[in-house]
Amino acid sequence: xxxxxxxxxxxxxxxxxxxxxxxxxxxxxxxxxxxxxxxxxxxxxxxxxxxxxxxxxxxxxxxxxxxxxxxxxxxxxxxxxxxxxxxxxxxxxxxxxxxxxxxxxxxxxxxxxxxxxxxxxxxxxxxxxxxxxxxxxxxxxxxxxxxxxxxxxxxxxxxxxxxxxxxxxxxxxxxxxxxxxxxxxxxxxxxxxxxxxxxxxxxxxxxxxxxxxxxxxxxxxxxxxxxxxxxxxxxxxxxxxxxxxxxxxxxxxxxxxxxxxxxxxxxxxxxxxxxxxxxxxxxxxxxxxxxxxxxxxxxxxxxxxxxxxxxxxxxxxxxxxxxxxxxxxxxxxxxxxxxxxxxxxxxxxxxxxxxxxxxxxxxxxxxxxxxxxxxxxxxxxxxxxxxxxxxxxxxxxxxxxxxxxxxxxxxxxxxxxxxxxxxxxxxxxxxxxxxxxxxxxxxxxxxxxxxx
Length: 452
Fold this sequence. Notes:
Blueprint: H1 2-7, H2 11-19, E1 23-28, E2 33-36, H3 38-44, H4 48-51, H5 61-73, E3 77-82, E4 90-98, E5 104-113, H6 115-127, H7 136-139, H8 145-160, E6 166-169, H9 176-187, E7 192-196, H10 202-210, H11 227-230, E8 235-239, H12 246-258, E9 260-262, E10 268-270, E11 274-279, H13 301-306, E12 308-311, H14 322-337, H15 346-354, H16 360-374, H17 394-399, H18 409-422, H19 427-434, H20 438-448
Parallel strand pairs: 6-11, 6-12, 7-8, 8-11
Antiparallel strand pairs: 1-2, 1-5, 3-4, 4-5, 9-10
């Protein structure tokens, strides 16, 4: 049977399936397994020859129900959490498949195994030490290849040229300021001076950066020292440098290039600090303003190319790092608030790894503070985390839409017990919730010994 099915498939098809790192299951309209790739074999320990040609329900009751439901309603499901075994955590995408006539022929399920992410980051959680106060360490202790390469380059650059100008590129909240402070603490002896370029007008920003010499008629005490001079042997960190007026950008570029600048009283001041700037994303020269809004000042090209660019990816591209970062901020919040550190169930760690975290580290920090404040002694589960972060589960997807009679005995009993609990023991309401008669419910209660 298996050989016959394999001979009917294009040879490239098998190679494609086995090249996919996620577990792939293909079933026909009746739920019979047509394809089971190498990753699925590894994930579940079931050989291809043992499952292909067999009903998927013989192996996975919940997954079978979900695939049948996807085919019945024609609607795909994405990012559904499932724990097929106590030691396994997966996220499932399932889609119906139609032929060129639009007729339903089956469904495909793709499962991403995140078990190692949960396990490894739980281990890292127990190894974390908050005694050093170095916030950058767990945040940039990364398994992300691109970020690793970036940090390795930064380390070599700072060792060879600690005065080099840096441009931190990344979305709000990815840790640009944290990394800038780390670079400063490792290589500079002076002050760390920060300035948000959105906060001041052109004239005031010039004065803040370069200072203002005493006027001819004014007292010497009216002289204002700029941040570039104030941070001697230290660091000036300029947030949102792309919002800096173009004239000020040109002056800054000249100061970096010449190694100093001339104040309004004609005095040349040597640039003795490191300049680190940040920007949410690199400018696109061809991009137009959005919805008719006036465009932001362009980032001066000379200034841009004077910086060494350090790209920091958002958390959604660092999924393998997310649980460890969450655990770190959870412990940090507990220490700061003087409260016990809550324990997270593995499914919560898995949910955090799958969530996109649009607010990046800032959102993580506030979320963990909330869990410390609201959490109790019991391990925290899905119901304890913000609703937007709770993934759908296979149980959520299948319970409401599948008739009670199609469930296995184990799942049928589970569904009945849940209905009884939800209705406060009211049998009539429970029967309506289950879509069966009251008599049928009483029969099921006796059958399973529920309420005895």
